[in-house]
């Protein structure tokens, strides 16, 4: 999350590569097992950080634009939501349903690349300089609470027959029109056209073809 510019061995920007392409490749390898299960769910950990950025399809890997660690993170989280959308579209005839999840704001080692000033601006640094949450609401959670929506998406009968959804706070997220701070899934993270486009690009970048 919000790391300095790094590239993997294939030359791809590390947040997009780790948060999206790695998931995409793993799911392609698991596909035969998912089909064989005759009723499987794939849950992808997205984030409310998707509101930061749509996917720049013309320059996903920051080759021609100035690198911004938060835009790169936001782009990767949008990719997670779009991946879940298209995976569900392709998998539902095989009994495979897919969801993306915002777990909540949780202080973990993911914040290791953030400065104390950045943490303080998010209300996540106390007077002693400890990285903790200073206030509590439905957004700020401990790790166990953050796992709740993930487990719900994987197991709940309430979601039988559904898929391709972005979920938060143990519920299906509402659709919102802008990039304002707050709950909900933004339109660029629920675009059917963008989901299909990202899928095709991901196959090309990894030089793989998802099983049909």
Number of helices: 5
CATH superfamily: NAD(P)-binding Rossmann-like Domain
Mean pLDDT: 89
How far apart the termini lie comes to 32 Å
The oligomeric status of these chains comes to single chain
Strand count, sense and barrel status of the largest sheet are: 3 strands, parallel
**What proportion of the residues form beta strands (DSSP E)?**
5-15%
What is the domain tally? 1
- In helices, the fraction of residues equals 25-40%
CATH third-level topology: Rossmann fold
Helix-strand sequence: HEHEHHEH
Rg is 17 Å
Question: Which segments are poorly predicted (pLDDT under 50) over 5 or more consecutive residues?
Answer: none
Spatial shape: globular
Cross-sheet strand order for the largest sheet:
1-2-3
**Which CATH class?**
Alpha Beta
Total beta-strand segments: 3
Description of the structure:
The protein is 38% helix and 8% strand. With 212 residues, it is mainly alpha-helical. It has one domain (14-106, 141-206): 3-Layer(aba) Sandwich (Rossmann fold). The protein has a three-stranded parallel β-sheet, with helices on both faces. Helix 2 links the parallel strand 1 (40-45) and strand 2 (96-102). The protein starts with 13 loop residues before the first helix and ends in a 6-residue tail after the last helix.
